[in-house]
Amino acid sequence: MKNFRKLCASAVLVLYALLAGASIDDSGDIELWFVLLCIAIAIGIIVVWINLSVQDSNLHEEMKKQLRNEVAHQLHQHPNFNLSKVITGPADNFKILIDTLNRNIITIHWFPKEIETHIFTFDDIISVEVTKNNKTYLSKSVGGTIGGALVGGVLGGSAGSVIGGLSSNTEINEDVIGISFYIHLRDISKPKVGFVVYLKGTCDKINNKTELYPTFVHKANDIMDIFSVILDENHKHQVTNKTSSNLSISEELLKLSELQKLGILTQEEYESQKKKLLQ
Known about the structure:
The protein is of the alpha+beta class. Helix content is 46%, strand content 22%. The chain has helices at residues 2-21, 32-77, 213-261, 267-278, and strands at residues 85-88, 94-99, 104-111, 114-121, 125-132, 135-141, 144-146, 178-185, 192-199. It has a 5-stranded antiparallel β-sheet, covered by helices on one side. β8 and β9 (192-199) form a beta hairpin. α1 (2-21) runs antiparallel to α2 (32-77) and α3 (213-261) packs antiparallel against α4 (267-278). The longest helix has 49 residues, at 213-261. 20% of the residues are buried.
């Protein structure tokens, strides 16, 4: 549709040029040939618009179909995946499948020439971030939350909590090039997975004051909220595991102490085993 807008602008310029140079008869009326030419151009624009609309609609339906098929394929390939939540992109260009029972995630992102799929666990996630115009607006990790150029949002609460987010009311009026969501992983082969929430040129142009802007902003914030909960759970798991580990070490030290008191272990053996536990 972007090319269609350029075509319309060019057609208007052509009509203006023709109007400026059009032949006018003695009565001051524009000649018939010019009227017919204008009608022909208008019909041509309408035909092109219809064709482009049909192409866009067909592409969108094909994209949705491919994503549905890929979701079914992934669930078939992973029968133990207990689907508990599905996040769908505002343009139906991606899906994030979440298994809260087994703490697994499958991401499916549609691109014109391929479908990109990734599978990882909750514990693989290091951090997540929302960007607007290639600037970080929210970035949350297991240990905390960072608000970059955040406007209209408040950070607070427990470690890593997020309140607010991208705002559509208090920011300055600027054109939006893109809004994206990224997941940073503990994976050398694929350290980051990205999702396009909005990209200039793929749909109507937006800025902070347009009606469409809140739609994309809310979707980005909704995704961020879900992954914030996941990261908070990761933090709790880490604390629990660390506590359990500390308790286990304490128990082992008590056992060593008892063995040393009973004379089963020499002082040197006791000190050696103790050192290994505390490393």
